[in-house]
Write a structure and sequence with these properties.
By secondary structure, the chain is mostly helical. The chain is built from 12 helices and no strands. It starts with a helix and ends in a 7-residue tail after the last helix.
């Protein structure tokens, strides 16, 4: 089927199950022309279809970023939340500001979790070196500020994000910033107050071990 036919199937779906199946087929096409339709799905009250639409937007990748950013002006919180997940999954640096804001202020733990993970895996390979260093530092500061998030699933994602920065962008992280990153992980690995969770502690310890045994150090 052509992408136009797949879009028509989505628009003509007459049940939740039919919509889910149609969106899954459209997402599998990975065609930029599907972006607008997939974004519309994010505003529907159908979580299954929204998950499939997010997967489709991530698969489309860079061509979907500007339309996603433009769609964030909607008053539909659900659609904005799904859009943040899509931006986090794509990893395009144009989504950095959205991810920073979501991690710091969004009311939904799952949205903050997605933002934290996304900040650790931005694809910065196409950018000039000076710009890369600035964006890495911004990502790091956003993650460090979220280490005390009240939800353990968000703190877990912060750990994943910090490890991603150290291991994949390590040479662009200053010595002082890398030291701060490792101090944050060490604190999460040994904390004992109610904010901490055993899973977060173990994941933090693992992240430190991986960083110390990979290229994510300056020594």
């Amino acid at each position: 089927m052509s992408v136009e036919q797949l879009i028509a199937s989505v628009r003509s779906a007459d049940s939740a199950d039919a919509l889910l199946s149609a969106v899954e087929r459209l997402s599998q096409a990975k065609h930029p022309a599907a972006t607008t339709c997939l974004l519309e799905i994010l505003g529907f009250n159908n979580p299954g279809a929204a998950v499939a639409a997010v997967d489709g937007l991530i698969a489309i990748g860079e061509p979907a970023v500007e339309p996603i950013l433009a769609s964030l002006h909607t008053n539909n919180y659900g659609a904005r939340a799904w859009s943040v997940r899509a931006l986090a999954g794509i990893g395009d640096p144009r989504g950095l500001e959205v991810l920073e804001r979501a991690l710091a202020t969004d009311v939904g733990p799952s949205v903050r979790r997605a933002a934290a993970s996304g900040l650790g895996r931005l694809d910065l390979r196409s950018l000039p070196e000076d710009q890369v260093s600035e964006l890495v530092e911004r990502s790091l500061q956003a993650l460090l500020a979220a280490c005390g998030d009240g939800e353990w699933i968000v703190r877990y994602a912060v750990v994943v994000g910090l490890e991603g920065l150290a291991r994949h962008q390590g040479q662009r992280v200053s010595d002082l910033s890398l030291a701060a990153l490792k101090r944050a992980l060490a604190g999460l690995a040994v904390g004992s107050d109610p904010l901490f969770h055993d899973v977060v502690q173990r994941r933090s310890a693992l992240a430190l071990h991986r960083i110390d045994n990979s290229g994510g150090t300056h020594g």
